[in-house]
Amino acid sequence: MDFNHSFTVPKPIDQVWDTITNLDKVIPLVPDASVVDGAGAKATAQIKMRLGSMTMQYTGPAEITSKNDASHSATMTAQAREKGGQGNAKATVQVQLTSAGSGTNGTLKSSVEVTGKAAQMGEGMIRPVTEALIQGFADNLAKS
Fold it and tell me: Which of the residues in the chain have pLDDT under 70?
């Protein structure tokens, strides 16, 4: 599944860039996500997601695989395994930031693959949950 989102935060681009490119700062901004181990460009993350009546917890490595400070663009990847289950999740997120006066505009292009129970729920159930996570992230980024 592919997702395209944009957001605006009332913070200078350099401050947002510093947060976005540091996993121990950016991961906790995603609702119900936390850093288990690591810092900087590599970390092990955990996220709890509710799909319908099921709650799933995923844990796995996340990494900033590329970043360009001049253009304020970066690519991040994450892979996770469902706790106590057979499911896996994999995501690639491309981030692009631009200045917007005293604030910052951001775009996120995400590609997400899931297996197991989550995949059985179907895109109609997964898409709104993912979109809510991204909106929650943008809201938390604005408040941070």
Answer: none
